[in-house]
Design goal:
4 helices; 18 strands; SMAD_FHA_dom_sf; five-stranded mixed β-sheet; six-stranded antiparallel β-sheet; FhaA_N; hypothetical protein PF0899 fold; Tumour Suppressor Smad4; alpha+beta; FHA_dom; 222 residues
Length: 222
C-alpha cells in the first residue's frame, strides 16, 4: 500500500484528525504506539517530492483507569513511545519541525480501553538544512558551496587518503542540491557510476575515496 493510500485509508476512520479506538481489556503501550503512528500518517504534509513534515507534539488521552496503570511506567514508557514514533517517521521519510513530544493525560469521559490521540505542529517557520552524514556523524552544510576533501583547505576535511585535497563540492541554492566532482584523482561515484555533476535529493548516497556519504535535508524551526 502506497503512502497516499495509507493516508486515505486512515482519514476514512478519523473525524477532524482525531483517532479514537476502544480495547475491551484495557490498553497496552503497543496500542498507544499504533495510534500515534496513525495520527502521524494522517497529519503528514507533503511539502515536496522528498520532504514530508509531520506534527511534533502528540497528546494521548486515556481513561482514568488506563492512565493510572500506564503512568506507573513513568519516563521509560514515554521514551519507548518516542523511539517507536521516531523510527516510524524515519521509515516513512517523515520529518519533525521541532523536537518530538508525547504526553499522556486522563480524560474522565473515556472508558476502560479507549484512547484518543490528537496532534499539533507548532506554527513556526521551518528552515531546510542540508547535511552530509559520514560514518554516523552529521555535518551541516552552511554554505551555498561546500568543498569536501582530505586537505585542511577544504570546507569539510575528511581523514581519507583516497580523497583528493579538494575532491568534490556540494552546491545548495536553498531548495535544491547537487554534487560536483572537482577533477579528483579517483572520481566521485553514485551507484557505482562516476559523475561530474549530479542533482541529488534527501537520501542520496555517493562515494569518494573509501568513504560513503549520505546527503539529507532536515527541517529546523527558524
Amino acid at each position: 500500500m502506497g503512502f497516499i493510500d495509507k493516508i486515505e485509508k486512515t482519514l476514512e476512520k478519523k473525524v477532524s484528525g482525531l483517532f479514537s479506538k476502544t480495547f475491551k481489556s484495557g490498553l497496552e503501550p503497543v496500542e498507544i504506539a499504533s495510534a500515534i503512528k496513525q495520527e502521524m500518517d494522517a497529519k503528514a504534509s507533503i511539502l515536496s517530492r522528498d520532504r514530508i513534515l509531520v506534527p511534533n507534539s502528540y497528546l494521548v488521552s486515556l481513561s482514568p483507569q488506563d492512565h493510572q496503570k500506564l503512568a506507573n511506567l513513568g519516563e521509560p514508557l514515554l521514551d519507548e513511545l518516542k523511539a517507536l514514533a521516531s523510527e516510524h517517521a524515519r521509515k516513512q521519510g517523515f520529518q519533525f519541525g521541532e523536537v518530538l513530544e508525547i504526553k499522556l493525560t486522563s480524560l474522565p469521559s473515556l472508558v476502560l480501553g479507549q484512547l484518543e490521540v490528537s496532534s499539533e505542529a507548532k506554527k513556526l517557520d521551518v528552515a531546510w538544512i542540508p547535511v552530509l552524514q559520514i560514518a554516523g556523524v552529521t555535518h551541516e552544510l552552511t554554505r551555498s558551496r561546500t568543498t569536501v576533501g582530505r586537505d585542511s583547505t577544504a570546507d569539510l576535511q575528511i581523514g581519507d587518503n583516497g580523497l583528493s585535497r579538494k575532491h568534490f563540492e556540494i552546491l545548495w541554492d536553498g531548495s535544491r542540491a547537487a554534487v560536483r566532482d572537482l577533477g579528483s584523482t579517483n572520481g566521485t561515484t553514485v551507484a557505482g557510476k562516476k559523475i561530474d555533476q549530479l542533482t541529488i535529493s534527501s537520501g542520496t548516497v555517493f562515494s569518494a575515496g573509501r568513504t560513503d556519504f549520505l546527503f539529507n535535508v532536515i527541517a529546523r524551526a527558524k
